[in-house]
Amino acid sequence: MDIRLINLFKSYKTSEDRYIDSINGINVDINYQNYVSFVGPSGCGKSTLLNMITGILKPTKGEVYWGKYPITKTSDKIICEIRRKKFGIIFQETKFVNELNVEDNILLPLVISSIPVEQKIKYCNILMEKLKIYNIRKRYPDQISGGEKKKVAIARALINNPEIIVADEPTANLDNNSAIEVFNIFTNLNKMGLTVIIATHDERFGNYCKEVYFMENGQIKKFLSKESKQ
After folding, report:
1. Which of 18, 102, 159, 165 has its CA 20 to 30 A from that of 136?
2. Domain 3-229: top CATH class
């Protein structure tokens, strides 16, 4: 599924009854199976943009197209259904149910799925093996490291077999080795055919992505493609 962002604006009302634009006139085409990062400092609008890409927020002005669907003209029910089937989302704050172990946290998105339990567990085991977290599957969130939590969040985002992975600051608070490991995970997911969309302050992601959009004050200030970097 291709994603198109057309003249996007997102405004917020301040306590002084003024409106400020968090996103200010963004136009981007994200083709199927692309690997894209939005790079910029905190407060530049990256997270807001990701929330509009995933349909969690609707733009104040402009349009987001998921294939043929314009999200401002599509019912919330259909948006939720498409998001559930097509998207795997990794939020900046990796939140888990502390009373559940790693394996059960990964399986949570499939609670209402009609997939047989044995099949769910088999696929979960495959993901945990690939991400090298199978040995911690029975541990609880407070018993694992920050890097391990990121991998668990990635596995949870993949458990519904999405077409598109969206991640907000996936390397935040990670040491260098863990960050590089996360870079490589997303690169491999893209090689497997997934569309990968990242928001990050970490400019190193630009070395892995096919397209990089540099953001400042809610706008795209610079664009680089893999071809232009070579």
Report:
1. 165
2. alpha beta
Pair type for strands 3-13 and 19-30: antiparallel
> Which sequence spans correspond to the domains of the chain?
3-229
Pairing of strands 19-30, 35-39: unpaired
Say whether 171 sits in a helix, a strand or coil: coil
Q: What is the pLDDT along the chain (230 residues), one digit of tens a residue?
A: 999 999 999 998 877 778 888 999 999 999 999 999 999 999 999 999 999 999 999 999 999 999 999 999 999 999 999 999 999 999 988 899 999 999 999 999 998 888 888 999 999 999 999 999 999 999 999 999 999 999 999 999 999 999 999 999 999 888 889 899 999 999 999 999 999 999 999 888 888 899 999 999 999 999 999 775 55
- pTM score above 0.90: yes
Nearest partner of 200 among 26, 38, 43, 91, judged by Cα: 38
C-alpha dihedral (15, 19, 22, 28), degrees to nearest 10 = 160
Per-residue tokens: 110: 């499939």
